[in-house]
Design a protein that fits this description.
homodimer; 653 residues; alpha+beta; Glycosyltransferase; Immunoglobulin-like; ten-stranded antiparallel β-sheet; eight-stranded antiparallel β-sheet; 24 strands; 36% helix; globular
Amino acid sequence: MSNLLKQFHLNDNFLGAYEKLVVEQVIPYQEKALKDEIPEAEKSHAIENFRQAAKMLAEGICEEEFYGMVFQDSDVAKWLEAAAYSLVNHPDAELEQRADDIIALIGSAQQEDGYLNTYFTVKEPDKKWTNLQEAHELYCAGHFIEAAVAYYEATGKDSLLNIMKKNADHIYRRFVEEKAEGYPGHPEIELALMRLYDTTKEKKYLELAAHFINVRGVDPDYYKKEAESKGWTVWGMNPEDTEYAQNQAPVRKLTKATGHSVRAVYLYTGMAHLAAETGDESLVRACETLWDNIVKQRMYITGGIGSTNEGEAFTKDYNLPNDTAYAETCASIGLMFFARRMLQMKKDSRYADEMERALYNTVLAGMQLDGKRFFYVNPLEVIPGISGEAVTHRHTLPQRPKWFGCACCPPNVARTLTSIAEYAWSETEEAVFSHLYVGGELDLTESKGVKIQVETGYPYDGNVNYRIVKDGKEKTELTLAIRLPGWCKQLSVSRNGGMVCQKNEDGWKVIAPGVHHQDGYLYISGTVGNEDVISVSMDMPVYRVYSNPAVAANNGRVALMRGPLVYCVEGVDNNGDVLGLSIAEGTILYSGYRPELLSGVVTLSVPGVRTKRTEELYLTEKPEQEPVNITAIPYYAWGNRGLNEMRVWIPEV
Amino acid sequence: MSNLLKQFHLNDNFLGAYEKLVVEQVIPYQEKALKDEIPEAEKSHAIENFRQAAKMLAEGICEEEFYGMVFQDSDVAKWLEAAAYSLVNHPDAELEQRADDIIALIGSAQQEDGYLNTYFTVKEPDKKWTNLQEAHELYCAGHFIEAAVAYYEATGKDSLLNIMKKNADHIYRRFVEEKAEGYPGHPEIELALMRLYDTTKEKKYLELAAHFINVRGVDPDYYKKEAESKGWTVWGMNPEDTEYAQNQAPVRKLTKATGHSVRAVYLYTGMAHLAAETGDESLVRACETLWDNIVKQRMYITGGIGSTNEGEAFTKDYNLPNDTAYAETCASIGLMFFARRMLQMKKDSRYADEMERALYNTVLAGMQLDGKRFFYVNPLEVIPGISGEAVTHRHTLPQRPKWFGCACCPPNVARTLTSIAEYAWSETEEAVFSHLYVGGELDLTESKGVKIQVETGYPYDGNVNYRIVKDGKEKTELTLAIRLPGWCKQLSVSRNGGMVCQKNEDGWKVIAPGVHHQDGYLYISGTVGNEDVISVSMDMPVYRVYSNPAVAANNGRVALMRGPLVYCVEGVDNNGDVLGLSIAEGTILYSGYRPELLSGVVTLSVPGVRTKRTEELYLTEKPEQEPVNITAIPYYAWGNRGLNEMRVWIPEV
């Protein structure tokens, strides 16, 4: 099978800068944090927990108590996964050695039967597997399996892979062979086991993933029974809130995306991966239903999901408040995972479109432009004095905070941005698929005898060149399938200068033989010469987006986009006041690149009016208005210039 | 002093119907509920608690445990207060006898030293006065004091008054003479003691009210210290949340209305009443500051206050979400109390305007048109499927529920609507003030030798006639001061057919001698003939209201009002869809009376457009629109025709 991670060398002006920040800032910072080497940061103790667990196994006692969340181990796993990815394009022998040392430490903290979890090894050895609802054992195992697969694919080293196979075998024995009841409170192991299966091709891992997916929600009272028997709790979570943990029904019966949004999309990712592998029709249909529910009823325009802080959860169809949005960075990353596996099931651009939406808006917004601070919560409207301060807005911080105690989002951003190849590309026997426009070189020498070099100024420029370079003299047949995004109304594609396809208001026109358009992908097939160039040229005007009126918060409002980027207005560009701004209907929207601003952005200039603030709260005369030119910036770049108002959905007049 | 309650005989088509419902439905239902005679209702046990307390005092044991909330006693007090008021205009010997019996029972539950509280007498005799933060002893005392004053003023009977004077004396001894520390977690006793002072003219009650007002917040850590020493808790309330209980600072230093909104306005009412009595300038200023903060930054257009469910509380300036509003009915009643006492301090129509706003919108909306169901929470936007269902909207029920376990709002509505005379009128040496337009007869024979008969179709008709009828032959000098509401742009006032004053776009024009306009009141002085008629004729067009753009939820939106009534659109009148509606700017708004609808309402017909619902969540083309005539109804009448969408603030196009 292909190893896109190794085969793709990222060389992208835009995403490359983010990858660089992750490699140079985030991964080293996180390593230090895990090792408690950052004095001003909250203590992690995550590596120390492994030391203590190893000591406990070796000597029967330990020197220090376990410290941290019950899932503290997973911070180490996420770091290892991100570090693994970073080693592909940025070899670093010292980093690799330190990672190897940590892996060796992990190995020494593994019990003989394969069990691996420092919380239970150090602190609660008698309570293993008694609290699947809260205790995250399977969740941590999943993250280590993901790290193991990544480390193996990135470095070829299999020591962590073997540790985690042994751990997965242990879990298989318990839950499949010995028929232990239960399923994980926080889905994650399902998607991880599918990745382990992809890498090892060992059927039992697919079988174990299928097991957890198939038993989930068959007994929706499982956590209730567990709560009655376990006699201990981590947080006192309500075992009857089945929607929270997506166990209100067997997964094939789920019709609405509910509960904790990260748990939800992690589960759906595992389901889609399994369905893609097995073709299980009822599972395929359930995935499609859940996908549609998210995308058509429960997703912010930024690709944010989970509209409430309470339970970090989905709520109800069309309930998408802008100012109190939760829209966790990790949930949008999970939506990218889900999209990737839906694409694996079916090559349809509507999945890639949403993957792109989540990536370029909420996921990138998660990280400050200097890589040093992170948003966990991504509101679409921020008002200093209310956001982060009112009791209803405590979660919607108006500026990115430093690393949290529960460090979920930063390492998730890190592992996603360092493994972008796996989202940008996929390969089947039929074709090579380009899902995202990312500069770099994809080495297909082994499978196709070519390399594909991509050059683009995306997401600010709509021109993308695919240069296909043949390595030898034999003829090569290749189908390159390029996603043509839904947001683009006018585009043309040429091959070696000759037009092969056009899209405009009249629809699609495919001109050349060997070229066809299906489900949003343009399939270009044929014999590759020594050097073929396929050029995609997308018009990139600013456009207005309207919301289904069922979304109460957005009635009468409009959002601005350009390409895949959602725009917002920020106080700093608009005299400190965005709440008074309205955009004039039907006016032309100007855009221009400003290299000096926010690491280089295209800003928009929009004719509109400002309604002036008033002394009284309610007025029987329309408050005074003045014409203004509104400046909008990409949403991902907001919050980088101090405390100020921000808004995505703006009244249209 | 005057006893407006006794002097005013209500005879008002509109408010009279509400008073009738209260007398015929609410008070009898509540009495049965208190006596546990309604099988399907949640057990109250409130009367039984008094029986048990009396038995405990008489025999040293009791047969049943205390049952209910720690403040269960106050339900009896609120009922007694409402029953007292109802006896004025609706004498009912049997009801009065039953009330007397309950009062006798209360007397037998009072301890020898004056202490009165069934929770502590029956359940926790050793914990009296140890938990001022949570245990509501002073709160319950306050409600019984209010009931005692009301019962005395309504019936002339002083047995409850004497019980409560004895109780107040007990509290005086403890907190003033013996210098016990502390102040009530839920303000109420302050305003009640001021009423007791008004009725008895005994200085010690004013002194005790002033004591609780003056010590509040001087030590903001008082509840923290109490929590450390008391060793028990009712609900585990956070003693450090000083904003919640308005003890973050001494009351004279408060600049923002914070915390639990009912507690807040009850406190401010007591402060304003004390300030009105004493003229204490720093207290006057604090009241004005808090009033302005509410009215200019923290109040819904409906007179609702307290914008979050969490703590039933005020949040931050301009944070007024429509769909998740708390806006408790009781809080708007409390705002009426506060307004009444501000008016006592200064006759300025801006206080009466807001009192009227709260009454005709949120307070009336609290009760179903049949008097059988009640809203505690009064959102300005309701969406079935989200409201009452999403985790963020559990409190915003889309239909009025039955009587709650914690029965605060229905009896509060009952006592307010049966004592409307005290809000509609006040009398000073200088003048008789008409604050609200309410049909009926005010008997001023004793003080002025006249009766004032008011005839009006308010709030739907802007004509109000004050017929002043002299009782004898002596000449009578009278100044009648009529509030002319801020919402009215065009009006004229005549005396016996001759114009005395006009208001139009050019401002005020006072024509006759002996007439002057000050702070929104028209003072008409002179000798009263045998029958003088003063007629106020107010234009009552529909008008648009805009919000300060600082209120994010209302940007680009408009509300409709006519007279004092805020309007809303409801699905049942608008093809089931109000979220898609926009009102056309600048168009004429029609209104017409529909006697058959909702007990008789003026509906509005408004040209606008409907944006049709769409399959997709986000669209790059403006969704299809169609012209529609929008029907709006008064906000107070919403939710009487089944489950449907409702909205006050509507986009304007």
